[in-house]
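Quick start: what a row looks like.
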Amino acid sequence: MRRSRIAVGPLRSGRAGQEFRVRRHPGARRITLRVQNDELVVTAPPHVSDRELRTAVAARADWVVAALARSRAARPAPLVPGDRIPLLGGSVALVASPRHRARHTAAGLEVPGDAPLASIVERWYRSAARTHFAARVAAWAPHIGVTPTSIAIRDQRTRWGSASAGGRISFNWRLMMADPDVAEYVTVHELVHLRHMDHSSAFWDCVADYWPDYRLQRDWLRIHGARLHTGPHPEASGRG
């Protein structure tokens, strides 16, 4: 798959030109447009020329402008001390501290009071996710009859977890912003993959044996998962 960037002329009168990212994929059958992380991404078959791509984007100018505006409007406000952020169905307050790293205490999540918090809070979420999922895997693996070889915490854009035939399991740290049942379902889902490396009926029957209501959490992720990818959003602070 080849990637590049292309600029097209102004999509509306008086506006600057629009740059977009191109993904030329051998499996693509047509030109498709989507907005991801405030950026226009165009996927196309390898043989499509840059000129054809510019024409396709210009032809959908109104949709592109509106989609980019919606994406930017949905961007969460920068985190500041006093905000509350989601944590496994509850929330934790951000408390200003002279520390350079986040630390969870009885008062809340202590964070630097004079620094951008996004990367600091993400590092804390990742650490919390490693502890949480290690415990949940340790609890579930013996019941399911599998033995994972390692656990990783990642930020996959299209997956909430993954499992390899070698026993390696990964989880998306953003699950820490969902209800605990959602994280529990993904834990069971990935562990069952160590018995069934597919999504066959046998796989889903096995998931149902250990987590009968899995459809509730699976559907929740399908409907609300995109919001996790734009968070954490401030909660209960009057700003979210």
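That is the whole record. The chain has a mean pLDDT of 87. Residues 55 and 149 are 50 Å apart (CA to CA).
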